[in-house]
Design brief:
homodimer, about 425 residues, alpha/beta, Molybdopterin biosynthesis moea protein, domain 2, elongated
């Protein structure tokens, strides 16, 4: 029963798989303030200039700049105070030559004014007059109409993962709703005669399903909606039926395929039976995660993840998260957080295989060290104790202690 | 009207403020699978061993290790196949000396077996017999009872920000619900006569409230629940009333304080009037974000953020996010993502001030460059175009082009 499938490097597997996927059709129109973490579905252009009027960036005096030329502490420019620009309304007066108007940060300049002198560079003279101690150039301390956003300018491109500042920019120009990509629905299936749900009591030989729960979290983090179809016993027909139900109701099917070769073979056969083009990748040059299946059937991606929870998580983050971003049309997904660190122990690998090793971070004398979390095997607690992973590239035989490495941090989830 | 308040370095301001905060009392008991991103309220210990039985990590043959000692390809050990260990049930037979049992990955070892020989290191002999080509040590290819988690072991400490793998580890030992910290409720108040809601049409001189929306996003990202109390005009009594309503219904009050000195002064007075100890910090040695107020009143934190949206976001991430983590009792909040990059332009600063400069990342010949996004002022679109910020430390006069810098990335939100 040796494993005869050919393995692909992870990057090639990802390119092959994601290259066959397209953004899901359709869109949802939702209030802008509910769009955090959603994907902008179409280019959004600004309907107006921001700001819509010339605003002061300082507390001070609006002036005609030329009235201040040559002003100094020794020979100030004396200007007549024509009034105070109110907040939230247009000033009801215009500025004539030789005049100034009190203005607050964010306030609108009166007509005729083209610059603002900071209050710190003025001096109170007799009532109704202000001394300007420094010249200002036209436009100084003023945000002009459209300086932030011009009417018609592209504000948020299609495919943008919307962050707090994007929401802010959209509401700033009065965009109160926008079209976002639908969240990809991901059907999750766990297989294995030994699996039971978390609430059931265990008989000897049984273990609780972990992958449905870890993978649900990763689906949500990637912007998708998990739909659990439960645990299916090692029965070809039952698995085929459940996988078909997944294809009927979701945009992607993820089967965590059991750990034994016979179960994995059954999963591969079931996936292959779902339709053309079928299995694209069966086996990836990665540890953990080698026995991964990537397929397309009935126009939808189908993934067979390894049954081991650590393998399943590593493969999901590397190959399935990008696939979900592709389905959502996201062009700038948030990258995984990374930190640089010194490796605290040798890691052995073999050429032609990409190793992902769980590490925890430790501070020693002001430097960050990555300490490999080894276990008897790939146990879920390995990941609970870890802060992220270090990758040993395909072409390396390992990494030596003391090497500077990049740690891909586990996200906040 | 010069600004007379003394400014504190950001770190000192944070320590002073967060040092006065304690985790909110109470807890919510929720299903484990809904606890992603929530904070574990109490130490969670494992009620059982994981695994609860000795499991094979390979497809192969369960054996008594001593029966394989000395085995080689030339002189294999011949063992009688006593049966096949089923998945999900305890084998109904025990292994006698000289016997082996077919076992699948994850399957339970029969009584008497203490190791597993990988199938690749065996050979089919006559029916009912298997040839073992390599010796195994006791425990080889076996996960022992409790190897992953021991009964009574600390599984998730109080204060843990729960990630997908933590959810997985908890369900693995049958923990289907757990106590989590309540989400801190944050009342948001925007002040300014010039502000209107995003759906209203603008008169000249008016601008739309941005901060309520950007800060709502940051509150959610920090694990809190935003409660918007709307826009309050520049009216001392109205602001005081609304701030009190915030203290009555939320765990923290955040006022985005308007940009002009007079509005800021009014906000500071209102915050000071809410109760003891009152204002702890008024002014921080940071740009943008100097006119920040940190206070405690009626036992709850009250923050006056600068009105400028960029300043408000910078200050929030630096000072308010840690305060929210403190209220939630979170001891290991997810760090902000960081990348290293080369600075693409000189940045000027002054000694005694920490500058946070928005940058976008660019790839040039395989290296990452941080390109400062400068604007006329701190405009919301500066942040929309940026990927993160570079910090010029307090004691530096700037950073030169080409310097290796750390970019704090904006989160996924």
């Amino acid at each position: 029963m040796p494993e005869l499938f050919n393995v692909l490097p992870p990057q090639a597997a990802k390119d092959l798989f994601c290259g066959r996927l397209s953004p899901l059709p359709g869109e949802e129109r939702i209030p802008t303030w509910d769009a955090l973490g959603r994907i902008c579905r179409r280019d959004i252009f600004s309907p107006s200039n921001l700001p819509a009027f010339s605003r002061s960036t300082m507390d001070g005096y609006a002036v005609r700049a030329r009235d201040t030329y040559g002003a100094s502490e020794g020979i100030p420019a004396y200007l007549t105070v024509a009034g105070e620009a109110p907040m939230g309304r247009a000033p009801e007066f215009a500025l004539a030559s030789g005049q100034a108007a009190l203005v607050h940060t964010g306030g609108m300049l009166p007509e005729g004014a083209d610059a603002v002198v900071m209050v710190e560079q003025t001096q109170q003279a007799e009532a109704g007059t202000v001394e300007v101690l420094r010249p200002v150039a036209p436009g100084e301390n003023v945000i002009q109409v459209g300086d932030d956003v011009k009417e018609g300018a592209l504000l948020a491109p299609a495919g943008r993962w919307l962050r707090p500042q994007d929401i802010g920019g959209l509401v700033a120009v009065g965009i109160t709703s926008l079209p976002v990509a639908p969240r990809p629905k991901v059907a999750l299936i766990a297989t294995g005669d030994e699996l039971v749900g978390p609430g059931e009591s265990l008989r000897l030989g049984q273990v609780r399903d972990i992958n449905t729960y870890t993978i649900s979290g990763l689906v949500q983090r990637a912007g998708g909606t998990p739909v659990s179809l439960g645990i299916v016993p090692d029965d070809r027909e039952a698995l085929r039926r459940t996988a078909q139900a997944g294809l009927d109701q979701a945009d992607m099917v993820v089967i965590s395929a059991g750990s034994s070769v016979s179960t994995r073979d059954m999963t591969a056969e079931v996936i292959a039976s779902l339709g053309e083009p079928g299995v694209l990748v069966h086996g990836i040059a990665i540890r953990p995660g080698k026995p991964t299946i990537l397929a397309i059937a009935q126009g939808k991606p189908v993934v067979g993840l390894p049954g081991n929870p650590v393998s399943a998580m590593v493969v999901f983050e590397l190959l399935v998260t990008p696939a979900l971003h592709k389905l959502a049309g996201c062009v700038d997904p948030p990258g995984r957080s990374r930190v640089e660190a010194y490796l605290a122990r040798n890691i052995a690998s073999i050429a032609g295989r990409e190793d992902h090793v769980a590490v925890r971070l430790e501070q020693r004398n002001g430097a960050t060290w990555a300490v490999p979390v080894f276990g008897e095997s790939n146990l879920i607690t390995t990941l609970m104790k870890a802060d992220g992973t270090v990758v040993v590239p395909l072409d390396k035989l390992g990494l030596p202690e003391g090497e500077k490495v990049t740690v891909d941090l586990f996200g906040a989830g």
